[in-house]
Every structure is written in C-alpha cells, then in structure tokens.
Amino acid sequence: MPRPRTDLHRKVRETLGHTLPLPSEASSPIRHFDRNANAIISTLRYIEGHLARAGFYASVCERHLANLRRMALASLVESFERFLKELAVLCIDSLVSFVNDDRFDEFSAKGGQIAFHLTAGSIGKALCESDAWVTNKATNERFKKLLKLPFGDNRESLFPDENQFPQGERNRARTLSILWQVRHTITHNVGVITGSDAGKFKMLVKADVESSRILNPGNHDIIYVKRFLSVTAQSVNVRIGNRLAQVLTVLHADNPALFGSLDKANSISRELGFPVTIDGSLGVL
Amino acid sequence: MSKAKHHVVIPSRKLAEWLDGQPGTWWNVDGDPLLTSEVDFPCPNEELAEGLRKHDGNIMVFTRKRGRSSAGEDLNSLDLDDLADTENPKKEKNILAAWIGSDIEWLLSEDKDMAEEARRTTTESIDAKATN
Q1: Does the residue A181 lie in any domain?
Q2: Angle between helices A170-189 and A195-205 (to 10 degrees)
Q3: Least CB-CB distance to A35: which of B33, B109, B113?
Q4: Is residue A11 part of a domain?
Q5: What's the CA gap between A103 and A145, in Å, rounded?
Q6: What does the alpha-carbon distance between residue A59 and residue B102 come to, in Å, rounded to a whole number?
Q7: DSSP H helical segments within A212-280, as ranges?
Q8: Which of A20, A24, A25, A42 to mutate to test the interface with B (most CBs of B within 10 A)?
Q9: Given an 8 Å threshold on Cβ–Cβ distance, is A38 in contact with B36?
Q10: How many C-beta atoms lie closer than 10 Å to residue B49's C-beta?
C-alpha cells in the first residue's frame, strides 16, 4: 500500500498557528531590542558550549556553526530594524491625535493594511510595520518628517550622510550602512558576496572587498556587531525620545487642552525607559 | 547544573560585589528577562555589576552543594566561588539563579574567550597609540 501523501499545503499553513505571546518587554522598544539581541547571543553560546562538550568532529561542527553565525548576524540587524519600527510606532501613536499636517505621508501603508490594524488601536503599527526599514535614507526621511516641529522643518538626520547633520553621527551612520548591506547579502544571497555587493561594500569601507566569496563571521565579529547595535540603539532611543518630547512640548504650549502634559510625559518615559520632560512636566518611570 | 538541589539566597548587591572582585572578566546571562532587557551581553564584570545594583532584590543561587545560608544569614562568610559550577572544558564559572518572586531560572556564565579577546584588543589599541 503506498504511503499516504502529506498535505504540505496544510502543513505550511499550520505554521502560522504555532506562536508564542510577546514578552512583556515588547512594550518598550529599547528593552525589546536588548532582549532579542541578547537571546541571539545566548542561543549561539548555548549551542557552541554544548557541542564543545560533546566532542563532535571539529570541522563538521564548524561548518554548521558558520551557518548559525550568518543567521545570527542577520537576525541582529533585523532586531535593530524592528527596534526602529517600534520607536516610530511610539512616535506616531503619541502624535496622531494632535497634528494635522503631512508628517505621516512618508509611510506607504494602503487602506487595506490600515484596516487590519485598526482593531489593534494603533495607527503607528498600521503605518510602520509593513514597510522595510533597512536603509539609512528611508529611516532618515521617515523620522525627519515624523518629528518635525509643527509647521517647521527638521534638519537633523538620524543617520546622517556625508553632507548631512549632525556631523558627530556620520561615522555611526557609515558603519550602520555596512550592516544593512551585510544583512542584504545574508538574507538575499545566503551570505554570498556578489559583484554588486562587493561594489557597495568597497564604497562603504573604502577598501577592496572580494566578490564570489561567502561571509564567514566569527564569534567575536557577532559580538562586536551586537555591541555596536546596542550602543546605537541606546543613542537613537535618547535622541528620538527627546525630539518627540520637544514636538509634544510645542503642541502643548500652543494648546494645553490637547493633552495632559504630565500623563503624556509619564507614559512616554515608561515606553522609552528614561524620563522625558514635556512642557515642564517631568515623566517618571 | 540541572541536578542542582540546594540553594542559598543572597541580595543582588552581594552578587554585584562578587563581580566587582573579578576585574577583566566578561559575563553572559541567559534567560533572565530583567537583565537581558537592560544589559548588553556579553559584558565586562563592571557593567553586569552596575545592572544588578539597579535592582534591590534577592536572588536564589542554586548549587549542588548543601546550602549554608539563607537571606541575611551568614552572608559575610559565603563565597560564591565555592558555589559556581566550573565543570566545563574552559573551567568557566557558571551560576544557576532566579530572582526571588520569579519562577524563571537563568544562567550566569563567565566568558573567558571574550575576556581574552578584550585584553588582546586593548593591547593592540595601546600599541597603535604608542606607534602613532
């Protein structure tokens, strides 16, 4: 009797039912990022530690670990992307009821996507979660417009290019550009540095990068990437948080009936993980 | 550590002080939602000690050895080195722990490889400065 065929169509669909609840830290973008990034490192360390104890063939082990490290590297960068989105959601949900201008026009969500999210009560999620945030340019343009002062421009870029401000953030922005490209190489080309990738890397690092080779990050590479992203996330959290507080201060000063400044300062401070001041009201954690 | 049966309860500051006494070491925490959402791991001893000091709580430390103290008792003579599990190829210190009031067990573990890498990088950096 022939073996019954497995219904692969059904099996694939069943994957969507296998989920876990979000951790409580997910209500704070920076805490959620730290937890995700640490979990990636812990997974690598746990597996490597146990494989070392088990005494498997070193060369075979190393091949599998190289695959895992590539996935870990991409996941770290994607965790940072998720952090940026969550921070943008916080900004949009904090502003959406009090502004009437074009600051949300940078987002590409269509009516159908927005409708899905209305039940969750978050316009921010509707606008941010379906877009990719994997270039400095897209991230800069969205945050720049989102956090402009009412009827004014925002000249500061989150990750400034060579001709943008603040100047002190340019080096960080260049390094982040390299990581966006590394993520692209791993996600879309399983780590193979194509001719196109090599060309972009050369421009970014201003040095020769050989094509037709596979990225093979070591443990220390992963840890240094993580530390760079963690430091960057902390800095971005403070810069965006303070700018959001500044925009809300201007709105509140213009019309105090819009919202209670202390309540708003408290709720935003809790989500950001540090105290912000809105129109003289200092939030508590 | 999965066979650990005994435990001692110590204030988080005691664990922080123990880490203070080990300059140049690096550490990981695996599984604690609190510390892993606040501290960038792996990290040097002083960063984890600072993270622990933000929380004035008590920690249950599990050990295969018989517990010699409970909260507030005999803490001065308690040596966490004695409680750490070092039965692994690199003889790294591992401590299984849980915050009092939480049922989540987490693993504090030394990272000798990263400590060595950090020492090497610091030396390189000093050498480069001296050359320039």
Answers
A1: yes
A2: 170
A3: B33
A4: no
A5: 5
A6: 41
A7: 219-254, 261-272
A8: A42
A9: yes
A10: 21
Tell whether A1 is covered by a domain.
no
Dump pLDDT digits (tens) for A138-195: 999 999 999 999 877 778 899 999 999 999 999 999 999 999 999 999 999 999 999 9
Contact A220 B117 (CB under 8 A): yes
Element (H, E) at B9: strand B6-11
Looking up tokens 């080309």 gives A189
Nearest residue to B81 (alpha-carbon basis) of B31, B130, B25, B2: B25
Give the ipTM of the model, two decimals please: 0.87
> How many whole angstroms separate alpha carbon B11 and alpha carbon A75?
35
Q: What is this structure's pTM?
A: 0.92
In A123-234, the DSSP E strands lie at: 192-193, 213-214
In a domain, A87, yes or no: yes
| The total number of structural domains that make up chain A | 1
Q: What is the pLDDT of residues A31-65, one digit of tens each?
A: 999 999 999 999 999 998 888 777 778 888 888 99
The DSSP string of A159-175 is S--TTSB-GGGHHHHHH
* Boundaries of domain holding A193: 26-282
Residue B102, pLDDT > 80, answer yes
Residue with tokens 């960063």: B47
- Report yes or no: A44 and A219 within 8 Å, Cβ to Cβ: yes
